[in-house]
What does this fold into?
Amino acid sequence: MEKAKQRMLSKLREECQAMVRGVYPDREKVLVFGEGNLDARIMLIGEAPGEQETLQKRPFVGKAGKNLDAFVEALGITREELYITNVVKFRPFKIHPRTGTLSNRPPDKEEIGLFYSSLVREVEIVDPAVVVTLGNTALKALLDDRKAAIGALHGRPLTLPGEKARTLFPLYHPASIIYNPKLVEVYQEDLQKLKALMENSEV
Ligand code: URA
It folds into this structure.
């Protein structure tokens, strides 16, 4: 199974790379693809890579990745048991007009739209039972609903639209905990709910 999935994912990545080259012919975009266990029961979907992720070409290896490790620990699993990816596969950044330094920004509608169909395909190929969205961008993209809001939907299972019935479990983005410590408790409660879901159901 893993080999067939690996082949399909490699092809998808090549197509994605070609699509991005076509859209940005004059710009070198570093793409950071998903990684992890191709037979994972849980697939995590973040927003987009940041600086560290782009340098290492791996998702969630920077600051937000540290919180993710705590996530994994709370679930009583290892990172090797998960598949982790992002909605947008390159780093959206802005340039400071005076200093010229780059900083992260949320991906815009066009950037999300560019990667939408390959994200849907990535979910189908990995075929997890539960898709965990991290933050608003991934939640809105996966529900294909711009009005969906993490504040209202976090911590309870929903049905992921698509050909095959899957559970969508929205969580706050790990980075939002860095900026808003009040969310730590909520995030931990949500993780326990996800843990119970994984333990008590067939998923
Ligand atoms: N934030 C994300 O959403 N994804 C990453 O890969 C890193 C930080």
Observations:
- Residues 2-23 form the longest helix (22 residues).
- The two ends are 18 Å apart (CA to CA).
- Residues 155 and 194 are 7 Å apart (CA to CA).
